Amino acid sequence: MIVVYSKIRHLIRELGVFRSILYGLRYSLWRMTGSKHIYHYLFTAQPVPTQGLIDRAPSRSIRIATVPQQGYDQRWFPRPADVINTRYEQGAMCFVAFKNDEPVGCLWLVFQQYNEDEVACCFRPEPADNVAWDFDLYIAPEHRVSRLFVYLWDAAFQWLRQHGYSWSMSRIDAFNAASVQAHTRLGAKTVGQGLFFVVGRLQLAAFSVRPFVHIHWRGARPPRLRLRVR
To answer: 191: pLDDT confidence band, cut at 50, 70 and 90?
Structure first.
């Protein structure tokens, strides 16, 4: 009982009361059905730094490269092939980290708009000529205590600087305190929130920006959110 109480206190300290209740509900639904059902996102904007994140080049064993669709191997990371193909069809770029030529992490950028692959929603960062959308930063579990996170972000920021982008937006899982803290350290600020409840083909969503509330049936047009740097 004491252990459970301690875990609850820690959760509330990290997420707050409301988000902890949502997390508990999502966890209960997942245990019963095997699906998350509840998704809570923070929409953030982080400035592209004017200088690199690291003051020296990565070790010789680390290489960061942008990989086109024809060069991407579907076996590299635990993502469905149809999801990867849809990302490339949207014009997304994939930065892949290789350690001794083994793919160990990736980070995606897309421009103009992004059709989310976890829920039905289209995100449109604005102004479009100055803001990119980043998503799905993945590091292989055995490398998560390394500096790969920094190397990937440094490469992506360098590309954005060279192409005239000043900001990068993303959606963060509001239940992932580590991810929220990592984005905060990069200077990210919250520009909106979204809460999705998905049951079968039905999706109910509430946002802090227009359209505020949306009811979606799978196959119909998803909600479109215009998110502007403030």
So the answer is: very high
